[in-house]
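Re-running Elongation factor Ts to confirm reproducibility after the cluster update. Everything else is unchanged from the original entry.
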Amino acid sequence: MAQIKAAQVMELRKKSGAGIMDAKKALVECDGDMDKAMDYLREKGIAKAAKKSGKVAAEGLTDIEIDGNTAAIVELNSETDFVAASDPFKAALKDVTKQIVANQPKDVDAALAMKTATGTLKEDLTETTRKTGEKVSLRRFEVLKKDDGDNFGAYLHQGGRIAALVVLTGADEATAKDVAMHVAAVNPEFMTKDDVPEDRMNHEREVFKEETLNEGKPAKIVDKIVEGRLHKFLSEICLEDQAFVKDSDKTVGQYVASKGGKLKAFVRYEVGEGIEKKQSNLADEIQQELNR
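Result of re-run:
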């Protein structure tokens, strides 16, 4: 049997909302496999489906730059929020974002190799590291294009902790910005249900089936209940079908259509998402619970 560590219990507890001992039991039953443990809790009715990884750990900021029919969304990381709030860091982020829009590199390595007034972008970030006393690194970026009849919508939340960039076919900039604000707030995974991979659909359907059977529902109505729960799940993770934050009587797709537009693309960045962070003293507290 795999040894279950406090950090694993912390992570599962955060993802699932389950109690410490429920999280520990799930990990024990699943031999420490986090994904299987999450499914175990869901099947037992203890947890809901998790969205994208929420392990926000690294510090830094995001930025968006729009130049004509091209836009870029960028995440630049630092070691502390103190440095992320500093003028040298903010200036570096703005410069990086402008250069990425102008040059449209294919990946981070290509971006770091871009020529600048003083050398390369990598050398510029090394200089920012020297000024701030902390490592400053370009983590990721994405470049989006639009046609002349399309509209970009950009939104930065909490000074750049979260960034959302949206492209609409038709409509107008105000509508696109409304959708970007929704994306920042609600964090959809996919544009439409057709974008959800088949293996993900099959996996969720199986989990919902086990959950429904564990509730003791009559076998003849299990499939109907499962499809209903799957439909609700899809409406929570797909932008087109999510209830619009500014008018919950409409879905996002319906809102955009009412403005003469259609969803085309979106990107959402949250600083540090998916990067592991050093665990706080809470790990010690949980370890004490596990040792009882």
